[in-house]
Amino acid sequence: MKHLLLTTIAAVLSASSLVLGERPNIVFIMSDDHALEAIGAYGSWLKKYCPTPTIDQLAAEGMRFTNVCCNNSICSPSRASILTGQYSHKNGVPNLNGSISEDSPQLAVELMKAGYQTAVFGKWHLTSRPMGFDTYKVTRGQGSWFDPVFYTQNGQWYGRRKKRETVPGEKHTGYCSDIYTDQALAWLKARDTKKPFCMMLHFKAPHHSYEYPERWKDYLKDTLIPEPPSLHEDVEKTSPRLKGVHTWHMIHKNGYFGRHEMDEVPPMWPHDGTTRGKTTAAYQHMIHKYLRAVGAVDDNIKRVMDFLEQENIKDETVVIYTSDQGYWLGQHGLYDKRLILEGSIKMPFIVRYPGEIKAGSVNDSLCSNVDFAPTLLGIAGIPVPKTMQGVSLRPLLQGRQPTNWRKGIWYAYWATGHFHWGVRTRQHKLVRFPGTTDYEFYDLGKDPNEMNNLAGQPSYARATAQTEKILEKLIKEVDIKPNQMPGANRY
User: What is the pTM of this model?
Assistant: First the structure.
C-alpha cells in the first residue's frame, strides 16, 4: 500500500514537472482597428487586395476563428477586457482612456506569478500602468505614427496628467510599427532562454488616419478597389436610431471626404462632385491608405515569425494574431467602429500552435474578447482567477466542441451619443436603446450585410422573443445592474 502511494505521488509530481516543462511561449500580436475583411484568409470582397501573406500563413498553419466579437467596440475598453477577462462594467473601462480597476485580475500578473517572462511593446491606450510585465515600452494614448515616444517600467508614468504637461519618455526615430517590432525583437534576443515568455506586440496601425511607411506608398496606386455592397446605404432611412446617429460617415457629419479632401499624399480619389461620387472617392482614398498600413503590419509580423524560426522555438510558441475590434471599411457608408453591427464587433482571431491545433482549421463558435485571458492561462496550465468572466477557448483549439457553449454574445457601448446594448446569436442580432422601447433586429443568416432592420415585423415576432430571452439571461450572467447600463444616468 505504501509502495502504491509513493508510486502515485511520484507519478503526480512527474506529471506536474512535465506540464511546467512544456509550458509554451506566447506571442500575442494585436493591431488597432484591423477589420477581418482586410485579411486575405477571411475571404472578403477585398481578398485579392490584402497584403497579408504572413497573417494568411498563420491561418493556414493554425486555426482561424470567424465569430469572435468584442463586447465594447472601442480601443481602451477592448484592451481592458483582453487583459482582465472581464466585461467593461466590471473592469472599470467602459470608455476611452480608462484605468483598469485595481481589484480586476490581469493576465500578465498571473503569467508572471507562474514564472513567465512578460513584456509588452507598442500602443497601450489605458491610463493605468501596465501590470505584471517585467518590461514594457508603450505609447501614451494613440501614440504617434512616426518617431514614437515610449513610457517604460524605468521611467515616469503619464497616468491621468493633463495634455499640456510634458512627461519625459524614450524617443525612437522611424515608423511606429517598425519601431515597436525593433523593441520586441531586442527583448526576445535578450530573454532568459531557460524560462517561458509571453511577449505582447500592440500595433497602432491601421487606425485612422492609416499612415504607412515610404516603402508602401505605391501599393495599388492606380487600382480601383471593389466597394462593399452597403457603401451607398441611406442609413438615415434604414437605421435612424443606430447607424443614422453614427458620427463617422463617408460624407456626412465627421465625414471622411471633408476631413481628407485637401490631402496631398495621397490625394483624394477623382470624383464627379455628386454625393455618390464623393462617397466612392472617399472610400478609395481610405481603403488604399488602410491596406498600405496593413501591409506594414504584416511586414513586421514576418520579422517576428522569422526570429522564432531562427531560434528554433516557432513550434513551441503559441502565436496569436488579433485586433482590438473590427472596423468599417465603407460598409453602411461608414468608417470607424463602435456600433454592435458586424463590421464593428467582429475581430480577427488566428492562433498557431502545431502541438495542439490542426493546421488550416476554422472555428465558428461564438467567442468574446473576454475569453482571451482565460485561454492563454489555460494553455499555460495556470489556474484562471474566478473573477475572470470569460471562458477558455482551449477545447475549441483542440478541435472539441463543448455541449454547453454560449448561445449569445453580450455587447454594450457607453460612449456619448451611441448608447446601446444587445446580443448576437448565430442567426440573429437584437439591439436595445436606453429610455425607449425601440429596438433593431437583424436576421444574420438571410441578411449578413445587416441592411434590413426587422423590428416589429410580425413574421419575426417569435425569433425576436427568443433572442430577447437570451439577452435577458446574458444580462444576469454578466452581472450588470440597471444603473450600469449604457445611458442609464441620462434617463
Answer: 0.94
